[in-house]
């Protein structure tokens, strides 16, 4: 009896990226576990030097990102798709927004929705201001830190990755974002360095966020008396359970686990938001949101460029909040950007930017207004400063705030459930992203690789949590944001260079050798104009006109030393002429039957051509570079030959231009459309 054939498990880790990354990740984590105080002290010194002396780098970089994305959204480049010209989104708009939102700011929203406004409200930096001014400032700066600027950072990285991956067919990797500047050097050591940075940054960011999330979940479970106390043993149980769910979700893929959990969580978040809005000071919250939105718009440019250089009292606050946030969002952008890019294929640049900048920002504003302003209102009117006194304990502040509302236990239970799901969605999307980076976006990675990243996340985050090393790791992450901010500026240059070439490539007019209709065959053309074609008539046109034209061209090209291939698929009514190339993209000119639905008015009008059905067909051209084709049903054989030649003339002129080199030599011939 033959033994069953065993399939050997084949890992797809790229050694040049994975091994150095693991050495650095494990090394930094072990140092943070063994010497948490000493490491944190050294890293704090480096971070403080950067924040005090180079804070302007963060301010200018983030400002450039915002201006650049707004420019693209309203420019002629906004209509370019993240993919071929005929590609369409893979996910519904709601699912898409849910996933990018859950990956981008999930746990942070729950952690800081009460804590941050309360800390701005009670900080010494604004203590001399009137209580009303402090409340307005608390809302304004919370809007600023969680608004357009934060999402511009994520949006830029996500846009660059999606554009170069789906438009240029490059790997879903940060190295691809520098292709116009580095060309084929992205495949070597420079590309590996960029991917190593992305992998380490992603791991550190997720580890620290999940660590703090576990502490908040533990605090909430203690508040509800589900757990007797907060402690490391209980945190181990929480991590094991939630990371296990995250691994199962990640293994099931984006279209199942992650999408379903993200959709559920967005619905749960909206329900919680409505509960707090209705049970809290509703009229005050609606009015304060309206006032705060206007205040944010009026102060937008002042907030953007303000470095507090003339205000010594607020400078420490500026370093510890605004600059820290910009560094934190930048450090998280490789992870969030990669995930956003992974789910954004087929959307136009305008749609991508508008959705990523505006929708999450507006939701964040509503969320922060409802929770933050409710807490400030309760603290001033009922709690006698009890909530302000808890600003140093943000893990418990959310749950203490809910105690002042009706149905507090139910609300606390919903909050914990949402945090848990956000924990899972952040972890599972992080695992997918890390596996993608470490395997250079291989589509054949075994699921065991995702399990590996899940186990590593759980083990190292628990070690750091137990030893008090999470803050040291967080500081390390903030420090690495500075060089990546500079890399992101290069992304801007790279993307702009590519978009200029892209737009010029697709907008380039046809050659002057275009032959217009003549009056020679006007009677035949009139008969074609007043008749509507069936699939059979299109097939006849292809066999009587298109194929003979392509055959004559093939023979003539052969006489000139050029090999031409003709592909005809009668069942799909599709025929094309293709000239193969080793380096540049193949030249393809094809004709396909295209269906058109005719209006009822045309069917019923007696003075229009007779039509038996609302459905008619016509032969339409298509090209290898996904440009929009056109109707050729009135072309003669010779005119079709001429049309092919004018497009081949255009093709040769484009590939002869050095500036188009990166756009026409990106392995399109082997990867398909």
Gyration radius, rounded: 30 Å
Kindly identify the CATH topology of the largest domain: Amino acid/polyamine transporter I
DSSP strand count: 4
Contiguous helical run count: 25
Mean pLDDT: 83
Largest sheet entry: 4 strands, antiparallel
Into which percent range does the helicity of residues fall? 55-70%
What would CATH call the class of the largest domain? Mainly Alpha
**Annotated CATH architecture of the largest domain:** Up-down Bundle
Question: Which regions have little confidence, pLDDT < 50, spanning 5+ residues?
Answer: 1-6, 511-515
* Strand line-up in the sheet with most strands: 1-2-3-4
Category by helix and strand content = mainly alpha
State the order of secondary-structure elements, H for helix, E for strand.
HHHHHHHHHHHHHHHHHHHHHEEEHEHHH
Overall 3D geometry?
Answer: elongated
Cα-to-Cα separation, first versus last residue: 46 Å
Q: Could you tell me the strand content as a percent range?
A: under 5%
Summed up, the domain count is 2
InterPro entries: BCCT_CS, BCCT_transptr
GO molecular function: transmembrane transporter activity
Protein name: Transporter
Keywords: Cell membrane, Membrane, Transmembrane, Transmembrane helix, Transport
């Amino acid at each position: 009896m033959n033994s069953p054939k065993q399939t050997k498990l084949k890992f797809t880790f790229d050694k040049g990226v994975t091994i150095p990354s693991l050495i650095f990740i494990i090394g930094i984590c072990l140092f943070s576990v063994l010497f948490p105080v000493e490491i944190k002290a050294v890293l704090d010194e480096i971070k403080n030097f950067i924040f005090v002396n180079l804070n302007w780098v963060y301010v200018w970089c983030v400002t450039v990102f915002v201006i650049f994305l707004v420019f693209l959204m309203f420019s002629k480049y906004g209509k370019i798709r993240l993919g071929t010209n005929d590609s369409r989104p893979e996910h519904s708009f709601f699912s898409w927004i849910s996933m990018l939102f859950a990956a981008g700011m999930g746990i942070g929203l729950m952690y800081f929705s009460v804590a941050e406004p309360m800390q701005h409200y009670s900080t010494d930096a604004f203590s001399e201001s009137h209580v009303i001014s402090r409340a307005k400032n608390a809302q304004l700066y919370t809007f600023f830190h969680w608004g357009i600027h934060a999402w511009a950072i994520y949006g830029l990285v996500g846009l660059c990755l999606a554009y170069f991956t789906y438009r240029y067919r490059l790997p879903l990797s940060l190295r691809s974002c520098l292709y116009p500047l580095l060309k084929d050097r992205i495949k070597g050591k420079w590309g590996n360095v960029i991917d190593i940075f992305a992998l380490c940054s992603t791991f550190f960011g997720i580890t620290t966020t999940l660590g703090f999330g576990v502490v908040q979940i533990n605090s909430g479970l203690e508040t509800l008396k589900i757990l007797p106390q907060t402690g490391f043993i209980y945190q181990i149980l929480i991590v094991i359970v939630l990371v296990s769910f995250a691994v199962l979700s990640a293994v099931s893929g984006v279209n199942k686990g992650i999408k379903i959990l993200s959709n559920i969580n967005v619905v749960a978040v909206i329900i919680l938001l409505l509960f707090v809005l209705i049970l809290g000071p509703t009229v005050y919250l609606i009015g304060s949101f309206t006032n705060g939105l206007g205040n944010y718009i009026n102060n937008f440019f002042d907030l953007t460029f303000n470095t507090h250089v003339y205000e010594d009292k607020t400078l420490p606050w500026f370093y510890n909040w605004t600059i820290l946030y910009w560094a934190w969002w930048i450090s998280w952008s490789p992870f969030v950007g990669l995930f956003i890019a992974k789910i954004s294929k087929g959307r136009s640049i305008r749609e991508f930017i508008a959705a990523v900048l505006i929708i999450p920002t507006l939701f964040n504003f509503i969320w922060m207004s409802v929770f933050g302003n409710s807490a400030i209102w309760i603290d001033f009117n009922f709690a006698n400063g009890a909530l302000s006194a808890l600003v140093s304990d943000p893990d418990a502040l959310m749950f203490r705030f809910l105690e002042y509302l009706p149905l507090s236990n139910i609300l606390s239970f919903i909050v914990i459930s949402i945090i848990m799901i956000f924990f899972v969605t952040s972890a599972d999307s992080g695992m997918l992203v890390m596996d993608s980076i470490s395997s250079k976006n291989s589509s054949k990675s075994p699921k065991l690789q995702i399990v590996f990243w899940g186990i590593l996340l759980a083990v190292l985050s628990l070690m750091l949590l137990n030893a008090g090393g999470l803050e040291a790791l967080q500081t390390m992450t903030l420090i690495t944001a500075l060089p990546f901010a500079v890399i992101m500026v290069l992304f801007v240059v790279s993307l702009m260079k590519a978009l200029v070439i892209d737009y010029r490539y697709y907008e380039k007019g046809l050659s002057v050798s275009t032959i217009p209709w003549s009056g020679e065959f006007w009677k035949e053309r009139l008969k074609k104009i007043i008749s509507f074609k069936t699939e059979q008539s299109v097939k006849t046109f292809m066999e009587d006109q298109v194929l003979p034209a392509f055959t004559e061209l093939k023979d003539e090209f052969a006489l000139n030393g050029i090999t031409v291939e003709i592909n005809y698929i009668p069942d799909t009514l599709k025929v094309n002429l293709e000239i193969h190339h080793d380096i540049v993209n193949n030249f393809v000119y094809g004709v396909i039957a295209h269906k058109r639905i005719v209006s009822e008015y045309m069917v019923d009008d007696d003075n229009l051509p007779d039509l038996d059905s609302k459905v008619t067909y016509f032969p339409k051209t298509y090209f290898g570079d996904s440009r929009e084709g056109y109707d050729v049903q009135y072309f003669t054989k010779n005119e079709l030959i001429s049309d092919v030649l004018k497009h081949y003339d255009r093709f040769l002129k484009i590939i002869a231009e050095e500036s188009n080199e990166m756009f026409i030599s990106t392995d399109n011939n082997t990867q398909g459309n």
